[in-house]
Amino acid sequence: MKNSRSKEKMKMRRWKKILIIIIFGSIITGVGIYFSLGREEYVTGDAWAPSKWRVEDPSYAEFTNGSFSALAYQPSRDFFGACLIQQGDSPHGWWNPSEKLGKNITIYRDKEQPLILHFVGKRTSPIEWFNNDPQNCASNIGVLLVGDVGLDYYNNDTSEPHALFIDIWLDTNPEVNRTLHWPGVKDVENDYHSGFSVETMPEIGEKYEFKFRIDQIIKDALNRWKLESFTLKMVQCYVEAKASKASIEVSKILIVTQ
């Protein structure tokens, strides 16, 4: 009896050791590798340039002490406007700001390369609408990735595609609950565009935190346009308006890789 009990105790100790190893390994290969082991490399830099595009007063975009605040007001139903922060080089040589990305990174359609977006922010005011037609109004919060896909990114020609724009929508109103692809923005350029609705921020004044991988999103866009690779060149965080007015505050916008 004693021998059998001692064998049982030895088995239990062995299983406890195995369980500890499994749990520790899960931490290392799972959440820990993303969030707590310090293996991340920053893709975005510290400096962001605030900007406004096709909006009207009292619209503003500010980046102070690491926080982005903005109000976007565009009463027209004919086009979008946006208030945003950005860093990196734009396509077509539109602008070459001093606010640069922290690291060059390329996502390939057939290779594994984790890329993680971390966002913390909130809507700070209810949306005001200036049109009752949901097809002709919008108030969206998102992150835009613009990449070199091997088509002469800096070429100032806008009649042919030279870049891939990927919108990652964190809140859309009216809600967009699907993936969209479209060629170019009328009267602006004829590049490739893809949009992915991934989150929602339904409560005004409530802070939302999102942290998720975006490399597969990029691969999905590459597959749609039959492109092989995406070298990140520019990042924007924005609130956009069409026949609407809304404000946001973003305390963290970060892209990292491993």
Describe it for me?
- The protein has 258 residues and is α+β, with helices and mostly antiparallel strands.
- It has 2 domains: 1-39; 41-257, Jelly Rolls, CATH 2.60.120.180.
- The protein has helices spanning 2-29, 31-35, 215-225; strands at 41-42, 49-53, 60-64, 67-74, 81-88, 106-108, 115-123, 128-129, 138-148, 164-173, 179-185, 189-197, 208-213, 229-242, 244-257.
- Strands 2, 5, 6, 9, 10, 11, 12 and 14 form an 8-stranded mixed sheet that branches. Strands 1, 3, 4, 7, 8, 13 and 15 form a 7-stranded antiparallel sheet that branches.
Topology:
Elements lengths: L1 H28 L1 H5 L5 E2 L6 E5 L6 E5 L2 E8 L6 E8 L17 E3 L6 E9 L4 E2 L8 E11 L15 E10 L5 E7 L3 E9 L10 E6 L1 H11 L3 E14 L1 E14 L1
Which sheet architecture does the biggest sheet show?
8 strands, mixed
**What share of residues is helical?**
10-25%
- Number of strand elements: 15
Look at the helices and sheets and give the structural class: alpha+beta
In the CATH hierarchy, the architecture of the largest domain is: Sandwich
* Cα Rg: 23 Å
Stated plainly, the CATH topology of the largest domain is called Jelly Rolls
Characteristics:
single chain; 258 residues; alpha+beta; Jelly Rolls; 2 domains; eight-stranded mixed beta sheet; seven-stranded antiparallel beta sheet; 15 strands
Put the structure in a nutshell:
The chain is an alpha+beta fold and 258 residues long. Helix content is 17%, strand content 44%.
